[in-house]
Structure formats: C-alpha cells, structure tokens
Amino acid sequence: MPPTSPFGRTVCAMVTPFTPDGRLDLDGAQRLADHLVGAGRCDGLVLSGTTGEAPTTTDEEKSALIRAVTEAVAGRARITAGVGTNDTRHTVTLARAAEAAGADAVLVVTPYYSRPPQDAVEEHFRTVADAVGVPVMLYDIPGRTGTRIEVDTMLRLAEHPRVEGVKDCAYDLLGSATVIAATGLAYYSGSEELNLPLRSVGAVGYVSTVANVAGPLLAASLDAFEAGSVEEATRLNAAALPLIEAMMAGGLPGTVTAKALLGALGLPGGPVRPPLRAASEEWVERLLKVHGEAVGR
Questions:
Q1: I need a surface site. Which of 59, 192, 214, 218 has the fewest CB within 10 A?
Q2: At which residues is there a site annotated Part of a proton relay during catalysis (predicted)?
C-alpha cells in the first residue's frame, strides 16, 4: 500500500492562470484544478509555489486563488498553499491568511537571498509552524535559496508537531534517505527525475511541475512500483525523462514550459508575468513533440 500523508501523494505544483492582460484568472484556475484532480490524477495541489509565480502575485491574489481552487476541488484533493518569503513576519501573515482561506496545509521555503545560518533557518520554520494549525511542508531548494536545510536541522524540525513534510529539491539522496529513515516526515520529490529513486527509499510521492501536463504518466510509475512491478515502474519513469528534461532542464523555467504546453493543449494557463517571458513558437513546437512522445499522443 502507498504511504499516506496530509498533503497527498501525486501532487501538482499548479501554475497560476492569468488572463491575456495579466490579471488573475480565477475561472481558469478552477477549470485547471478540476482537470488536474480528475484527468490529471493529482490528489494534491500546491498553489503559489515557484511554478505558481508566487513572487509576482499579491497577498490578496494568493488568498483569492486558494478560495477559488478549494471550491472547485470540493474535497477531492489536498490543497497546500505556498507561503514562503525571505521575511519571517510576512511568511507568518501569509500562512495565517492561507489557513483562513481554506488551505489544508502550507509550503514554506527556506528564506532566500539573506542566507541565514542554520539556527536562524530553524527558528524561521518553527515560528511559522507555531503560528498556524495546519500541517507544514518544508521546501528545501538550495539552488534557488542559496541555503540548505541541513540534515541535523531537519531532524530537529521533525520534532515539531505541525512540521509533517518536505518538498525535496536538494539533490542529496544520502541526506534525504537519512532523514526519511530517522523521522516520520512525509518526503516528496520536487525534482521529477528523482521521483522513483526517492520513492524507493521511503518518500511518499512528488510535488511536480510536469504533472500540469503529464500527471497520469508520473502517477503510473508510482503505481507500478507500489504494485511490486519495479521493471514497469522503471520503464514508465524512463518514458517521462525526455519531457522532464525539455520542461525543467532545457533552458527555460518550468513555469514557462508548463504554461506553453497548457496553452497548446487548450488548457487554462495564460501568460507568465515579467520578468518571465513566454516560450517562442519553436520552443512550443519542440515541447509538443516531446510531450506527445511521452504521453502517447
């Protein structure tokens, strides 16, 4: 049986749909969320994360998005709201607002740019977890923040009753496996190429940008692994790799490639907000080709 978690298992880091003139598209967000939870096989959604362009949305837009998606999903998936900033006070404000808006949990990234030492990182997370009554998922992505959540820090934070999960983008299998083995934290791969490797050492599932456009393929690999068919899980994981590379490591941010594909597939997404820029027509054609080969279109 797959492990259980308050955040879900096959979790999509959902884009934030905008209208052609750049306004928040709440109707599009509801339609996309309904699609992801239904046809996309996602049992959890993360809103206002990196893929959701959180740095360019206002606090009011974040709360409105939670309310709209929660209404659309109607209990069919867990809603985790990204609330992390590089300001502890602002993060607490966003976390409380997310809880009030109906989020089931919050995602808190390591404070970025200022590069605080580990004791300050730990205190930041504890302060946020103390301020809310919902589960907290830590977001460890040192490539963006400049600061790792070190293993010892993670072990101490695991003792907090509301710190229940980790979105892992640290690319440190030894460290991740160590924390998984020593704690009850629900670990999620935040780097799709590591979905299967991390699951094999005890992770719950993934929080994925690629799931915006290929959720069933990613979920099928986990299903096969949990059914005991490691060979089939490996085959499905390999089938997803070219799409993962094109979307996440091909030179454009995942938000840009996900929105390009969503638009080409007739799904809500809309433009990206500056400083991001839309993919070129050539990029969209390439993405569509790779996507079709991966999902069998």
A1: 59
A2: 50, 113
Phi, psi of 18 (to 5 degrees): -125, 155
Q: Is 62 a catalytic residue?
A: no
> Prior bond to 275 cis, omega within 30?
yes
Specify whether 139 is catalytic.
yes
236: which 2 tokens?
Answer: 């499905």
Catalytic residue (one of 139, 187, 188, 206): 139
Q: Which tokens is 76 given?
A: 């069919």
Angle, helices 254-264/230-248, rounded to nearest 10 degrees:
100
Alpha-carbon distance of 288 to 297, in angstroms, equals 10
pTM confidence score:
0.97
CATH of 10-229, one of 3.20.20.70, 3.90.1140.10, 3.40.50.300, 3.40.605.10: 3.20.20.70
Binding site, annotated residues = 51, 207
Distance CA 225, CA 77 (A): 22
Q: How confident is the model at residue 296 (pLDDT cuts 50, 70, 90)?
A: confident
Domain ranges of the chain: 10-229
pLDDT over 70 for what percent of the chain? 98
Sequence ranges of the binding site for pyruvate: 51, 207
Is residue 247 within 8 Å of residue 274, measured between CB atoms? no
Q: Render pLDDT for 206-215 as a digit per residue (tens, 0 to 9).
A: 999 999 999 9
Token reading at 32: 């996309």
Which residue in the list 112, 113, 167, 171 is annotated as catalytic? 167
Q: How far apart are CA 242 and CA 219, in angstroms?
A: 16
